[in-house]
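User: Predict the full complex structure for these chains.
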Amino acid sequence: MFASIDDVIERFARLKYIANRTIATVVYLAARLGKPILVEGPAGVGKTELAKVLAGALDRELIRLQCYEGLDEAKALYEWEYAKQLLYTQILKDKISEVVGGARSLREAVDRIAREDDVFFSDRFILPRPLLRAITSEAPCVLLIDEIDKSDSEFEAFLLELLSDFQVSVPELGTLRARQVPLVVLTSNNAREMSDALKRRCLHLYIDFPDRAHELEIVKLKVPGVSERLAAEVVAVVQRIRKLDLKKVPSVSETLDWARALMLLNVESLDHQLVTDTLATILKYEGDIRKAQQELKAHVELQRAKLKGAQPASDKDLLN
Amino acid sequence: MDAKVVEFSNLLRRNGVRVSLAESMEACRALALTGLGERETVRAALRATMIKRGVDLPTYEQLFDLYFSGLGEAIAATTEATRAALGLEAQAFQELLEELRRWLAEQGIELSELARALLAADTGSLERLLRDAAERARLGDIQQGFQEGRFAHAVAAALGMGGLAAELERLAAALAGGGAPPALRAYVERRLQDLGDLVKAMVRAQLDRQDVSRRERQRLDSLAEKSFFYLTEEEIRRMQEAVTRLAQRLRNVISIRRRRARRGRFDSSATLRRNLQYGGVPFRVVFDRKRKDRPQVMVLCDVSDSVRNVSRFMLQFMYSLQDLYAKVRSYIFVAELGEITALFAERDINAAIESALRGELINVYAHSDFGRAFRMFHRDHLAAVNKRTTVIVLGDARNNYNLPHEWVLKDIKQRAKQVIWLNPENRMTWGFGDSEMDRYAPYCTVVEECRNLNQLYRVIDRLVTA
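Assistant: Here is the predicted structure of the two-chain assembly.
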């Protein structure tokens, strides 16, 4: 368990995740209070990564549940293994007829079978899905419920019992309590507003795009060997592009992709042509690319002018 | 500290942020863990435990600053100002305080608690005394700016400022008589003024707290009721935010409604097929998926001069609709009709609206001719109208005495699911002058006045529900 907020920052940094004070505070509180964290924010700012790193930092297993429209209890919690049950009844036919053997009436036979039916509804035939695994796990784990906004509101309601009491009800087996309270991280892209009941049970964390210094730090950490200058230029350009009105703004992971791509191309410094050629790594829409190109042309030329600022660009400037 | 958290959550609630009891308890437990040492940590801890909606964040940040920027800092700042006014370095100032303490001890003068805290520049005790006084004077009840003076008096009285003034006067006289250095006397005289300033500042800060989002809320409410025709530049900008938010909310509503309708009837053949692996025993039941009802919307928007302000918002809404529904076709018209569906799909919202209103598609400076525009629609686009289509017309129906051609609308209505006409003019003026609203109205399913944001919202809500 984390000793302090600084301990969170430190352990996350060791796993190459730069957590600012806000993130670290929320993580620390969640770990100490045993509350789930609901992480919201634009795509690609490291929401899912947070859960992974959290599991790594605490040296716990990460159990992941990816949500999607139509996800139901059977896929998330548990399912009876019908096929296995059928197979067993087939194989054990003789044994069953032995049990039923001496019965004089149908009623008695059914009673005898009923006495044995918990054999078929036991742990043996249950197929645990992520939620049940997280609850029954012997060692404490981290449970990641990814993109909860994609699931239906019925599923959200079902999660409430789990998130507040860390227990679930299986009709045939009764209520299962968590042996070890798992640390739960829910992520949401805000495709829809989550219900107040769910929010009340969680600590809320909003992660936004990092500022320039912060993003630069991330690039240098995640792309080893990148030159200081290239990293600074890449981050400057991306930060600038994010200010434009685009269909999809570049995320942090795309900044990293771009930096890696430029490294592969052995680039030391950006120029206009290069930016134009590689812009597709960070922008995914034709219209966005066109818009960004116009904006960046001006930007790159300004940079160049600044660099040359010491000596006049040409004789003409001297004359003027 | 718990009391402060409770008070702070009350403050949040008064400002329209929902904070449950469980959440403020959580906040107390969180603060017990993090401690109060660091401001940013406290801010993060309270935010994580109490603020769950993005829209509440600005209010929270503002209130946090107001509430926790605290009195302590203000007191320290006042002391600092006094030190600077006396022209003393920090070191010399400490010596001065020390000297005063010694002198008091020598003379055997016993001061009241307030005077002691004030003269020793003891920030902690002074803050506590001020807070107590504020509570006794019920400073929390302050509502309006004009009450400021009254509450300042009440706090001062609760604090015992009258007694303090007399006490300090006696002290100053004693200092003068006892041959104390003049700096000491100047200091004592100044402190009374300082305390008065602090009380006023505290009352003002309290007033600010009450006000933060009441002002904000009033602003938005009045905006929603204000007619589109009388908006200032600034209001237009804010209105755009409001329309975008409205569209966002609709999007959520729609996705929920669609999902509710998803499950359909029992599908026997699919059930049989699915359960072959279990020897035909129906372990899993399969239901039909209901066919998603994809509403089709066709919007015809008048962009002539007379309704320019409204059409801007309507265009904005059409843009949002186009994102929302798979099949939306948008048209603008003045005397002729132009389709802007493609324009909306290609460009971002502002560029699209700008170019639509600039007249790239049709001549926007012509005189409105609804009849002609309708005939063009009839000729080119009527085939696209079917029984699932909702046709929305936005316009004032002021036809400049041209032929109204209402038969077009009749034809459209026969084919479409519904025809909605939104008129940005006051209902009282319909049918007067060159307004042809009365001729068109019989062929519309719904005719609504749509002069402000609230009316627009009601109309759109009905559209989505239908």
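Residues 182-225 of chain B form the longest helix (44 residues).
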